[in-house]
Amino acid sequence: EKLLEIKDLHAGVEDKEILKGLNLSVNKGEVHVILGPNGSGKSTLMNIIMGHPKYQVTSGTMEFEGEDMSGLKTFERARKGLFLSFQTPEEIPGITVENMIRTAKQTITGDKVKLVPFRKELKAQMQELKMKPEYAQRYMNVGFSGGEKKRNEILQLLMLQPKLALLDETDSGLDVDAVQIVSEGVAKFHNENNSCLIITHNTRILEKLKVDKVHVLMNGQIVEEGGAELIEDINSRGFTHILDAQNEAK
Ligand code: ADP
Ligand code: MG
Ligand code: MG
């Protein structure tokens, strides 16, 4: 069952083309990984899937559950079940963690989320993530350490239960223990009814997950696809040999 389908996508920012004919398809229940060198367009792709207003799609199609997503605003995409965890989570002074997640949940479900049961669930999830309960009343990410910010991202994932979780280097800059928590958190989130699209340079985050497909993004295109074995291949041989192999084939 197709969840996300991107065909021949051309897109960019400020008149600069970054994605140059990208194809990508994710089925329900699958875990996909995108690997690629710095500057290849990975974060741009994630932002474009979420409908970030700074980026422009110039051609190609993007469907979610068989529905064209063009023209949908970010909150409308969130309502459809998309969630993006950022490389650098934002600090939001004045809005507590609890308020932020509750408001997001209300926006997504279109329903009022009752405080008492919500608090109970939040507390339980925070406990699992080894977050101190008082963090619920702290301002979003303000004064949080790198690891605490990432735990907070996973907390949102578990509370909001999106159909497709887009994780953009959620594990970057984390110590070993924090990577473990992120890894367990993602594994806890994932089941046969949702999907994950993960950008990472650190394959330790994948240890607790069964990876269905790996895509290599270079120069704005998916240049290679394969199973989990592609991760090892790239870890040992790097990215350039893929382009070398393709140039030789031409
Ligand atoms: P990755 O996440 O793979 O490291 P990005 O998607 O962040 O790559 O960036 C891809 C390319 O687009 C880079 O060359 C980057 O400099 C450029 N780029 C990204 N965002 C902007 C922006 N807001 N303005 C101009 N160029 C940008
Ligand atoms: Mg980068
Ligand atoms: Mg990036």
TrEMBL record:
Keywords: ATP-binding, Nucleotide-binding. GO terms for molecular function: ATP binding; ATP hydrolysis activity. Residues 4-244 form the ABC transporter domain. PROSITE patterns: ABC_TRANSPORTER_1 (PS00211), ABC_TRANSPORTER_2 (PS50893). The keyword Transport does not apply. It comes from the Bacteria. CDD domains: ABC_FeS_Assembly. The keyword ATP-binding applies. InterPro entries: AAA+_ATPase, ABC_transporter-like_ATP-bd, ABC_transporter-like_CS, FeS-cluster_ATPase_SufC, P-loop_NTPase. Belongs to the ABC transporter superfamily. Ycf16 family. NCBIfam families: sufC. PANTHER family: ABC TRANSPORTER I FAMILY MEMBER 6, CHLOROPLASTIC. This is Fe-S cluster assembly ATPase SufC. It comes from Selenomonas ruminis.
